[in-house]
Amino acid sequence: MRLLTREALLTFRRAPLLSLLSIITIAFSLFTVGLFGLVAINLREALRDIEERVEVIAFVFRGTPAETIAVASSDIAAFPEVQAVDYVSEAQALHRAQQELVEFRDAYRDIQVNPLPASLEIRLKEGFRDAATVEAVAQRLRGFGFVEDVRFGREWVRKLDSLRNITGLVGLVIGLAFAAVAVVIIGVTVRLTILQRAREIAIMRLVGATDWFIRGPFLLEGALKGLLGGFLALGLCYAGYFLFRNNTTAALADLVFFGPVQVALLVVFGALLGFGASLVSVGRHLRNV
Amino acid sequence: MPLPVAVGLEGFYFPTVIRLSHVYKTFPNGALALKDVSFQVGKGEFLFLTGHSGAGKSTIMKLLFAEQQPTSGDVRVSGYNVSALKRDEVPKLRRRLGVVFQDFRLLEDRTAAENVAFALEVTGARNDTIAARVMRALTQVGLAAKSRAYPRELSGGEQQRVAIARALVNEPAILLADEPTGNLDERASRGVFQLIRDINAGGTVVVMATHDLDLVRQTPYRTLEMREGAVVYDSALDETDGGARQAGLS
Known about the structure:
The complex is a heterodimer of chains A (about 290) and B (about 250).
Chain A: H1 2-14, H2 16-51, E1 55-60, H3 66-77, E2 82-88, H4 90-100, H5 105-110, E3 119-124, H6 131-142, E4 147-151, H7 154-196, H8 198-206, H9 211-246, H10 260-287
Antiparallel strand pairs in A: 1-3, 1-4, 2-3
Chain B: H1 10-13, E1 16-26, E2 32-42, E3 46-50, H2 57-64, E4 72-77, E5 80-81, H3 90-94, E6 97-101, H4 112-121, H5 127-140, H6 156-168, E7 174-178, H7 186-201, E8 205-209, H8 213-217, E9 222-227, E10 230-234, H9 241-249
Parallel strand pairs in B: 3-8, 3-9, 6-7, 7-8
Antiparallel strand pairs in B: 1-2, 1-4, 4-5, 9-10
């Protein structure tokens, strides 16, 4: 183990320029992946804000007893898709209308009988805000006898659906493309290191080192370079994020950065890239000697 | 300190340590490198392989340390069947061999001691035994005083001695030397050759490829002469040794 670490670290001392080149290459590849990741999570964040407003409203027949509604409310709240159920009484509906629809405030003030029905406003849990689930919940609500009508922004929810699918797909494709480019570039830099040390590998084989023993330092070295590249990429991403956030309009000021899990993922991904590229390159070299 | 007795030293106790039977080697470009080569090397023996460049000496060496496999025929070294050796068995065979080349093959950025230690480290030797074993090997080749020197600070003869120390440090049953004196001046050649003879005197089988016929003539060792991939003369099979030997080497 000590030997493994020593041999892996020796490369950095022996070929500092090549090592630096590898790390920077990895860093820039991951930086590109990271930047796209930032765009993706901010898009998702924006979508989530919109999604939170997805709700199903069940209008209640006038004169339905309060107990019936209370019992039904708790039934509905127990649906696996449902996050919260709010009862809005006729009076509350009127009050809200007066607050929100300023143009009609006077008209509402003058009326003698409240024309607005009571309703149950149902918000869905995250992950259940797609068109199919919303439709299914609406269908179940229609089954309650006291429900007069169920409304939700059908078209709107559908558009949200396709937007979500497109962002996910585009994110995946571009992310994979950049990751593939990163793997190829890292593979090339590792290959350079191996060619530089071909003589050493030949001598190791000559004196009876096993293939795994020869691979060891290269794999550790690759993983280390990937790790360092990952940290550098993270720094670059943060610099980019910081500059962008501070030089744009207020609307973009609430952009988010990676959470701790995503930070760890980026760095671990870097280490895995370095490890994988080394594994492939050393394997190919060893097969040919 | 007790010597580490390698598991399966049975090869060492075989009367025959190396055996080639009807070995053919064809290169991918179709060139025939070896034609029906058969010979045996017994325990404790010293064997010269002679012949012009391209005669097949190096190919035989490469077969012996499993760098290459024969196209057909049987190659057995220290109990291993090289013809059917799996890739993961190659290191096991090589740990029983010491190999020395014309170009020394030392690592330039490591000292003499580190170069020798390298052979122990890669085979997983215990850390606390390495320094002593390295010093013993360097002492054996007469370079204990230069253990901290880098290859570029050593003469050719000294570099070859480091390479020999590296080959010896694992206490191999067989030492393979491919033109070990090819890059050395006469004085250094003599020194290195004497060292190899001493190693053989200690019981290690030596197979040495060389085209230095003066060196060969000075010694009584068995000689195999190669020409165009075939063995054309084996002094062990020659009853009228002196005369035929002269003819064979002419």
